[in-house]
Design a protein that fits this description.
By secondary structure, the protein is mainly α. It is built from 9 helices and 2 strands.
């Protein structure tokens, strides 16, 4: 039970940090609608994101029960002539791990050397229906790495479902302060992407019947996070943090009109 709680908390943290881009894209798209429709579009987008994730989790959980071998791979050594069986579950784990390695490596490169605004500049908000359709497509794209991360970290379906629901709730009510924190401390975004590399590798290993205890992964992630928080508290930089390249333009994020219960403090400062 203790391991499940640790997994739940870790997964919620990852879901929130990695899901921020999705929230910002939804907000950018909804901000291109008339003022009266923006709040509705934002809520619809986040609720769609939650149900898409839950639906994909349910589908993948069924696929992961397909443990019968589909084919065999020769795994010969000097001592044995072993045939490794690959099942539907193994294929999902291997392909999912490869996807996480690709996605996180590509995202790390983009943060350092990519083109800013490469995604948001192609978005158009002509009507409420077109915005919702674009949000739906974005949700599907952003859900893939989120779902594979959940599968790579925990085995219990209830933990995955709970993490998704709580993380969407957090992003619904606290998107602005979390976004500010991550933008002011980009090391946490890079750390989360590094965790995806670790999870991707463990998925591939598990697909090839090399089982890495989850406790090793949780400890590595917790220790790295602990070190970063200690550095954050002890080291006061004299210069602003490194500016990473985002898939949206900074001025687009600045134009987002967050809900009053999120932006109240910001308005009072102005």
């Amino acid at each position: 039970m203790t391991e499940s709680i640790i997994a739940l908390l870790t997964l919620i943290l990852l879901e929130v940090v990695l899901g921020l881009d999705n929230v910002i894209f939804i907000s950018i798209l909804s901000s291109r609608l008339p003022q009266a429709q923006q709040k509705k579009a934002r809520r619809v987008g986040l609720i769609l994101a939650m149900f898409i994730r839950l639906g994909l989790l349910a589908i993948i959980s069924v696929i992961l029960k397909l443990t019968n071998d589909l084919f065999h791979i020769p795994w010969n050594t000097k001592e044995t002539n072993y045939q490794m069986g690959i099942s539907g579950k193994d294929l999902i784990l291997i392909l999912g791990g490869l996807f996480l390695l690709y996605k996180s490596s590509k995202e790390i490169y983009h943060k350092m050397e990519g083109d800013e605004g490469d995604t948001s500049t192609g978005m158009k908000g002509e009507s409420f229906k077109s915005v919702v359709i674009q949000i739906l497509l974005l949700d599907i794209v952003f859900s893939i790495d989120s779902i594979i991360t959940a599968v790579g970290m925990v085995k219990e379906l209830w933990v995955m479902f709970t993490a998704v629901i709580i993380s969407v709730g957090i992003m619904l009510f606290a998107a602005e302060p979390i976004s500010k924190f991550v933008n002011n401390h980009p090391v946490f975004k890079m750390l989360a992407l590094s965790f995806l590399l670790l999870i991707g590798f463990s998925l591939i290993a598990e697909g090839f019947e090399v089982h890495i205890p989850k406790g090793y992964i949780y400890f590595s992630m917790a220790f790295a996070l602990f070190v970063d928080f200690i550095q954050l508290k002890m080291h006061k930089p004299k210069k602003p943090p490194v500016k990473t390249r985002e898939h949206y333009l900074q001025e687009e994020e600045n134009k987002i009109e967050w809900p009053k219960w999120e932006g109240k403090e910001k308005k009072n400062k102005n």
